[in-house]
Specification:
This protein has 298 residues and is α+β, with helices and mostly antiparallel strands. It is built from eleven helices and six strands. Strands 4-3-5-6 form a four-stranded mixed sheet, with helices on one face. Strands 1-2 form a two-stranded antiparallel sheet. The longest helix has 31 residues, at 163-193. It binds glutathione. Glutathione binds at residues 19, 88-90, 112, 117, 129-132, 143-144, 296.
Length: 298
């Protein structure tokens, strides 16, 4: 439900992500997706909400009360979420979660080629100089796991209610943040971006990534989703698992993981989340991705 007017679902290209995504695009990814309210409809709802709030406030507080303050608060709540992102696994976790939640948000794409993520204004939002960042009102949140937890708590969704279920979801979320993401990320560095191909480093990170995929597979032999019901733990792991080819891995022999991947990939909100932000079309995609990835290495 992001606020840009462009249709993010119309693409026809083989595209790549900076962090390590390599996927086939179809012509019209919107088929089967539920119809979303038009900008005009949402604007009308917004005006209606604002008018209702003003009259309720004046009725309760009297005609001389500070209605403008109440409306400013409403305005802030209505325009509260801003996502700074790029088409990468860590960015997609958040756009998928926001689409699953069906909330309104604004997208601000960050251009890695211009190193926007290292500019002073961005470092004010995230001292680590990386995407994603979510700004809720005027409160910036960095680290995709922290953003997912913030969203799940704020909207009371995508996280089991019981203490054990919640803990289980957080465990699998941390497993992704501390394991799957960093290991696949390093596999990408040595397999894709490094000029010098070092077999020991490539094998080390690919072997460790594969081991982590096997851990997920064993868990998914026991349960449909990582923490029982579909949760932020699935979203976080899925966003990386789906990029396995870019890391030089396969899902061969990991049938439960493949079943889980396919089920999540088929969700309309996931389809929408993966189209955010819109990708810039490039002729020789893979090479440019590799060149930019190489330049980002520190
Ligand atoms: N642990 C961080 C990792 C964020 C991260 O590595 N983001 C990558 C894109 S997937 C990035 O912004 N790279 C740009 C850079 O390294 O300059 C998170 O989960 O948010």
């Amino acid at each position: 439900m992001h606020r840009r007017d462009q249709n993010p679902f119309l693409f026809a290209e083989r595209a790549t992500d900076w962090c390590g995504d390599h996927i086939e695009r179809r012509d019209d990814l919107s088929s089967g997706a539920p119809r979303r309210a038009s900008v005009n409809e949402r604007h009308a709802e917004y005006i209606e909400g604002k008018a209702k709030l003003a009259s309720a406030f004046l009725a309760e507080e009297g005609p001389s009360s500070d209605v403008n303050h109440a409306l400013d608060t409403y305005e802030k709540e209505e325009t509260m979420l801003t996502l700074y992102t790029a088409p990468t696994p860590n960015g997609h976790k958040i756009s998928i979660a926001l689409e699953e939640l069906g909330v309104d948000y604004e997208v601000k794409p960050i251009d890695f080629r211009k190193k926007e993520q290292k500019e002073a204004w961005f470092l004010e939002l995230n001292p680590n100089g990386r995407i994603p960042v979510l700004v809720d009102g005027d409160f910036p949140i960095f680290e995709s796991g922290a953003i997912l937890l913030h969203l799940a708590e704020k909207f009371d969704a995508l996280l089991p209610k019981s203490a054990e279920g919640r803990s289980r979801a957080i465990q699998w979320l941390m497993f992704q943040m501390g394991g799957v993401g960093p290991m696949m990320g390093q596999a990408n560095v040595f397999f894709r971006y490094a000029e010098e191909k070092i077999p020991f480093a490539i094998e080390r990170y690919q072997r460790e990534s594969r081991r982590l995929l096997e851990v997920l597979n064993r868990r998914l032999n026991e349960t449909e989703y990582l923490a029982g019901d579909y949760s932020i733990a699935d979203i976080a792991n899925f966003a990386w698992v789906r990029t396995y080819e870019w890391s030089g891995l396969t899902l061969d022999g990991l049938d439960a993981l493949q079943r889980w991947h396919d089920a999540i990939r088929a969700r309309p909100a996931v389809e929408r989340g993966l189209a955010i932000p819109e990708r810039i079309k490039r002729g020789d995609g893979d090479k440019k991705i590799q060149a930019t990835g190489r330049k980002m290495l520190v």
